Inverse folding.
């Protein structure tokens, strides 16, 4: 099973600041990595897939990068609605696995 | 407009079988994966398993001996059965799918499953 390690666990930032979230995998997943955003009481929302492709309707301030074992989700300038928990997911190997999540909260 | 609706019993006793169904409406979802994911209260996401458009299933090894996922493509419905539940299976269960990607971008509203004697 591929283990995904997200860091930091919590990121405290102010609106307008840049957020950089990391996801590292225990073995290479090539580009088969996605990022999801989850707000309280809501289902996860797909933001990025195949490491760097924005899903339909996702604002351009969200960007993904990386390949192999190291991936990054960047939010260029935090909006109030971006404060949430973010999960990475790999679908290179079965079973699919999620990272433990990074909570982005308001400083 | 795509809608994903899920339903099923949310209160179970230990050793019973969890049974949930997911209906997907408003699009064509026969080409990709139909998945189930769960989330214990206050915790992260766990992938349970998926079924592909050709009926191939993949399950989380930690649950494989107790899980069955089936699809009825004619109705755009798919289902989850988890046998012999325990308190450790208490969670919010989501169904999810896509009409164009190998990643789930349409999710159900979630069903809270409680296991209590």
């Amino acid at each position: 099973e591929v283990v995904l390690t997200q860091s930091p666990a919590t990121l405290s930032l102010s609106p307008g600041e840049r957020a950089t979230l990391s996801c590292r995998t225990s073995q290479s997943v090539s580009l088969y990595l996605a990022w999801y955003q989850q707000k309280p009481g809501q289902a996860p929302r797909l933001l990025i897939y195949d490491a760097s492709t924005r899903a339909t309707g996702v604002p351009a301030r969200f960007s993904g990068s990386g390949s192999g074992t190291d991936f990054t989700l960047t939010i260029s300038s935090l909006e109030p609605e971006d404060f949430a928990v973010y999960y990475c997911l790999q679908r290179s190997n079965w079973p699919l696995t999620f990272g433990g999540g990074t909570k982005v909260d308001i400083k | 407009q795509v809608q994903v609706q899920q339903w099923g019993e949310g209160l179970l006793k230990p050793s019973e079988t969890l049974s949930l169904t997911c209906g997907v409406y408003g699009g064509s979802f026969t080409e990709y994966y139909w998945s189930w994911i769960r989330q214990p209260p206050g915790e992260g996401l766990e992938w349970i398993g998926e079924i592909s458009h050709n009926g191939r299933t993949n399950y989380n090894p930690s649950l494989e001996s107790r899980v069955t996922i089936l699809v009825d493509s004619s109705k755009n419905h798919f289902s989850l059965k988890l046998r012999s539940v325990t308190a450790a299976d208490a969670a919010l269960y989501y169904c999810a799918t896509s009409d164009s990607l190998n990643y789930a971008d349409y999710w159900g509203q979630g069903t809270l499953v409680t296991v209590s004697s």
About this structure: Chain B is about 0% helix and 50% strand. The two ends of chain B are 40 Å apart (CA to CA). The interface with chain A takes residues 35, 37, 44-47, 49-50, 58-62, 94, 96, 101-105, 107-110 of chain B (CB under 8 Å).
